Amino acid sequence: MAARAEALGLPVEYLAANRLTGLRNPDSRIAYREAKATLAIVVAPPTKLRLQPIPPSADWRFDLAEGCPAHCQYCYLAGSLSGPPVTRAYANLDAILDNLPAYLGQGAITSTQADRAHEGTTFEASCYTDPLGIEHLTGSLSAAITRFGAWDAPVQLRFTTKFAAVKPLLGLAHNGRTRIRFSVNVRSASRYEGGTASLDARLAALRAVAEAGYPVGLTIAPILPVPDWQDAYAGLIRDVSGALAGVTDIDLTFELITHRFTPGSKNVLQGWYPGSDLPMTETERSRKLTKFGSVKYVFPQDLMQSMRTDLTEEIRRSLPQARILYWT
Fold it and tell me: Which of 48, 107, 167, 209 could anchor a disulfide with 44, C-beta 3.0 to 4.6 Å?
């Protein structure tokens, strides 16, 4: 990884210990920018080898990295990771991948569902990062895809991305055991997704990986009540249909995720993006408790139901071959 960065002419500093200093600038916006521009190559701690379920996406979550170089104003990592938002890539990749077979057949999230059991034991690699966004520096995603492709077992690697640099993945021997999903939103929400690939680039990448034989998916997230949201999301789904026109034998899924926030994530995000107009007014939301007892704010039930109905019906009209895995 360090050699890749040096080959690109990027400055590389070797530290004496697994600790970064100097990133806590008193101006939080400067600290944020500096952290977002920093990739740390570290060793994943032993806790990372004790996998956790990741409902409703997959049986197990494993991490190739933590943190993301993008600048999404709704980023859920704001409430999940502590300290400056440095991206930390894990160097002990072999240990991480060698650990996965111990979890084969042990899942209780997707591999026990009748309509998803054919996917085998599922492993999510993009819970705390966008692995494609840093693949040119790490190579970890290609290594994971190749490992799963050679794994003669009922398994599936899953990741989702807002980037489009899929060319290094197209020739890999994936053997249909990796599902590549693209996180997309309506065009009017693009202002909330700084530093990511454009929607058109993501849809072109979707077509490319589908033509390369990968199972593919769309994660529509976070669903927002933008002006004329019904037409906007219908247009997005039709754009997806157009991007895949003529591609045969597609294994296509959708995951539909509405916007939500916690008091903690709202505070962090407003510090990072003080000028954002992302709607996060508590009085316009429903207050819910998570399974851990913490508070989150979601859309009112009538709006949620209307969104769910409209998006589901449009997917069934425009892409009847697609499976909708979940709505949340």
Answer: 48
Residues 6+ apart with CB under 8 A from 23: 31, 34, 35, 38, 84, 86
Q: Which burial class, exposed, middle or buried, applies to 168 when counting CB atoms under 10 A from its CB (0-12, 13-18, 19+)?
A: middle
Q: Which two tokens stand for residue 164?
A: 């489009």
Composition of the chain by helix, strand, coil, percent to 5: 40, 20, 40
226-240 pLDDT per residue, tens? 999 999 999 999 999
Q: Record the tokens describing residue 312, joined without a space.
A: 């589901």
Length reported for the chain: 328
Q: Containing H/E element for 89?
A: strand 87-90
Helices and strands (DSSP H and E) totals, the chain: 9, 15
Q: Under DSSP, is residue 27 helix (H, G, I), strand (E, B) or coil? A: coil
DSSP structural state of residue 43? P
Global pTM exceeds 0.90:
yes
For residues 134 and 88, the answer to whether their CB atoms sit within 8 Å is no
Is the CB of residue 97 less than 8 Å from the CB of residue 91? no
Let me know if 44 is exposed, middle or buried by CB neighbors in 10 A (0-12, 13-18, 19+). buried
* pLDDT at 17 (0 to 100): 77
Distance between CA atoms of residues 183 and 283, nearest Å:
28
| Cβ-proximal residues to 293 (8 Å cutoff; 6+ apart), any chain | none
Residue 61 near residue 127 (C-beta atoms within 8 A):
yes
| Those residues with Cβ within 8 angstroms of residue 274's Cβ, 6 or more apart along the chain or in another chain | 29
Tokens of 209: 């990986």
DSSP state of 129: B
Q: What is the pLDDT of residue 25?
A: 62
Tokens 């993008």, residue located: 70
